[in-house]
Each structure stands twice: as C-alpha cells, then as structure tokens.
Amino acid sequence: MIELFEQYGQAYLYSDGGGLSGLAMTLWLFVITMVLGFFLSLPLALARVSRNLWLRWPVEFYTFVFRGTPLYIQLLICYTGLYGLEVVRDHALLDQFFRNALNCTLLAFVLNTCAYTVEIFAGAIRNIPHGEIEAAQAYGLHGWKLSLFVVLPAALRRSLPAYSNELILMLHATSLAFTATIADILKVARDANAATFLTFQAFGTAALLYMLLSFALVGLFRLAERRWMGFLVPARG
Which parts of the sequence belong to the ABC transmembrane type-1 domain (predicted)? Predict the structure, then answer.
C-alpha cells in the first residue's frame, strides 16, 4: 500500500505530472457537467410541460433517446462515432471540437444528465399545487415572470431529493471518462493496478474516493433540504 501511494498518491489526488488527474479531474468533470446540465434543463423542463406541442414533443424525444440508451454508448458515439462522419470532419469548428477527448466526454455527460434533470424538474412543476399558481396570478404575475419567480423556485425546492440522486449517479458515471483516455480516478486506478498488480489497493482507493465524494454530496443536500423544504414538513401538535 505504501508503495502504491508513493508512486500514485499524487496522481490519485490532483496531477499525473502532465495535467489534472484523479480526484481533481473527476471533480472538474462533475462540476462542469452538473452546472451546464442544470441551466440547460430549466428552459427544457418548462417546454416539457408546455401545452404547445411544438415545444413539448422535441423535448420528449430528446429525453426519450438519452434516457433510453446507456451513457456508455452515448460516450462512444460522441468520442468516436461523430468524428467518423464526413460532415463533421469537413467543418473546421466541429473537427476541432470532436478531436478533443475532454470535449466529447463533457458533451455526452451534459446531454445525459440534462435529459434526466428535465424529467425531474418537469415532474416537480406538475406537482406544484394549483393554488400557488392562482395566488401568483392574482398578484399580477403571468408568462415568463410567473415561470421565473414562482414556478421554477417552487419546482426546484420540491425536486431536491430526486435531483440529489441524479447528482450522485452522475458522479459515479464520470468513471466512464477513462474510456476517452481522461485521467479521472478510475483511469489512475487502472494505471496503478497495471504497474503494481496491487488490484485490491488500487481499486479500493478509487472506491474510497468516490464514497467520500458521495457522502459529501449527501450531506450538502440534507442541509439544503432542511433549509428549503422545511415548509413541507407537517407541523407537530
């Protein structure tokens, strides 16, 4: 174990000598994915519950495709499949984008988590009591102001438990980044195992790091639920 940490301790945590690796790379992938996925999902969730079929149907199709296919396949398509298309290689901007493994990985992760988050937020929007909407309308809020100041805040509060599960699942899913040669925690563990043959120690260290990150997320969301969902707890007599 000491030999493993002497050789790969730094790589597990933040750098392999050539750039970010291990814990730092996993956190970077996770944060960028969740931030982009979150902000993309907000307007799409509103479109998902819209009565306008031209707004709702494209979003339904998108979430159906990305929730109906494995993330691993989506990553392979973004990493190797799309660059095999002549139209991509012939376009300078697309060619440059899809040559970068990190860009392809983030694209797959963002599209996947956004699809799940859209359905989580859309479900929360549907469960908002109609009385809250009527009260806001009585105060003169309509259209985008109603959505921005009433619907979305109420939906986000109610979706915290389900959204926390999606965050944890996405954190674990970042381990697929090694497929695109990204030096995340799992990539470092595989390299360490191949070099030292300390299989249990190499992958056990990776498992411990993922577990600590998961516990930290659970703790943060419990604090958030206590802060923003307290009004949903029945009053004690």
Answer: 23-221
DSSP 8-state class, residue 128: S
Looking at every residue in the chain, the average pLDDT score rounds to 89
pLDDT reported for residue 140: 75
What is the 3 state secondary structure string of 55-118? Answer: HHHHHHHHHHHHHHCCHHHHHHHHHHHHHHCHHHHHCHHHHHHHHCHHHHHHHHHHHHHHHHHH
Q: How confident is the model at residue 128 (pLDDT cuts 50, 70, 90)?
A: confident
Q: What is the pLDDT of residue 143?
A: 76
Write the CA distances from 141 to 40, 51, 144, 150, 157, integer angstroms.
24, 19, 8, 9, 20
CA distance 119 to 200: 38
Fold of 23-182: MetI-like fold (1.10.3720)
